[in-house]
């Protein structure tokens, strides 16, 4: 369906009416196995870890939305990242962004590094620094853009050129942007991945991950790893994610519109320090955002100046929920140092600007005026 628009593909790709009854929605195939007619005689389905029609529908839809040819669903975003890292042998070298989700850093530093994987962390805003970090044994360049939580961008096309010149895979975590706002494969990435828990699921009611590629060789290896390691999602989570993809475009439009208003309010308030949001004209990489993104997303971070102020503010909000995660229809507020980025060493956090006073907003789709009023009353409190 690649000739159709985004929303049409989100609603229909991989989701033909069910053959037996004509059901418009893909059924929840709540089964672990399938009856076979005889030895070697079956209908293409043997065991649900390997073959699952609800999951297959989700994987096809995600692949089409990201502009790939093969999609793979996993039980969580970290399971998706873990599968991608298993494409490399122990001892492989990875160049990764120095500002990334704390769970990704924990996986790299506490799980993979002891197994022999080697990581060099670089500020991906500096393409030449990325190029200088690449060695002959580098197997992967791993990027987030925007980063979590500092909202730094990297020039995907320029870094894809570095990866291609070195023969390394380029992997992009596209969770913050979704394929509606950014398609890294079209800019040269080898692999794009998501925590589908976030915007793709969009309703704070599931845990999941996804990987998409347009490379048949990478896809064959990912399919083997998905089955051999077994970190697959259940049918209900696949169904819920498919349901949510149908409204992704309209939700992201609202997330973006609300976040722009909230960011502009925060930037105008004297109590908030630097406001990190790509949609603000004075954001240092605003021009890059205009070039490679189709919208600015729903994530904002800003600094209140101290742990005490951050603690008071987080306790005073009423419409925003103080909670981990992001990307749901409801607005969430997070304190990265004590929540999502606790596994990042303090000296690294300090260097990146992840201070005790930093708070991160996941702006939902409520009425923007109510969100701004909530921030205002929390500051007054």
Characterization of this structure:
The protein is of the alpha/beta class and 381 residues long. It folds into 2 domains: 240 residues, Type I PLP-dependent aspartate aminotransferase-like (Major domain) (Aspartate Aminotransferase, domain 2, 3-Layer(aba) Sandwich); 132 residues, Aspartate Aminotransferase, domain 1, CATH 3.90.1150. Helices cover 38% and strands 14% of the residues. It is built from 14 helices and 12 strands. The strands form 2 sheets. Strands 1-7-6-5-4-2-3 form a 7-stranded mixed beta sheet, sandwiched between helices. α1 runs antiparallel to α2, α2 runs parallel beside α9 and α12 crosses α14. The radius of gyration is 21 Å and the shape is globular. It starts with 5 loop residues before the first helix and ends with a helix.
Structure characteristics:
single chain, 381 residues, alpha/beta, Aspartate Aminotransferase, domain 2, Aspartate Aminotransferase, domain 1, 2 domains, seven-stranded mixed β-sheet, five-stranded mixed β-sheet, 14 helices, 14% strand, globular
Topology summary:
Elements: H1 6-12, H2 53-66, E1 70-74, H3 77-85, E2 93-97, H4 102-112, E3 118-122, H5 127-133, E4 138-144, H6 156-166, E5 169-173, H7 178-181, E6 191-195, E7 209-213, H8 216-229, H9 235-245, H10 248-268, E8 275-276, H11 286-292, E9 299-303, H12 307-316, E10 321-322, E11 332-334, H13 346-352, E12 358-362, H14 368-380
Helix pairs in contact: 1-2, 2-9, 12-14
